[in-house]
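Q: Got a minute? One more chain.
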Amino acid sequence: MVSAALADDEVMLVIKPGEHGSTYGGNPLGARVAVAALEVLEEERLAENAQKLGEILRAELGRLPKDLVTQVRGKGLLNAIIVAPGLIELLSWSNL
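A: Always. Here it is, folded:
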């Protein structure tokens, strides 16, 4: 897993050395794995592909009847639908 955190000085200067970090933080092998993962993201154009597929997904979800799904939104392949009030109870786990 690769992660990063960005914050302004107001937040970052509160954290003292040794208070926050990870076992593999700064590890050369972990850093090389992170670079390789980023290279795959770039070479295979995964962000662009997610954007295109997300547009298709939202367009298709947008074709659902408006009395069932009142809103479709998202970015890339991270999407959400708003189910019409009243249907939520019908679709809940307790009714399955």
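A: The chain is about 45% helix and 15% strand.
Q: Perfect, thanks.
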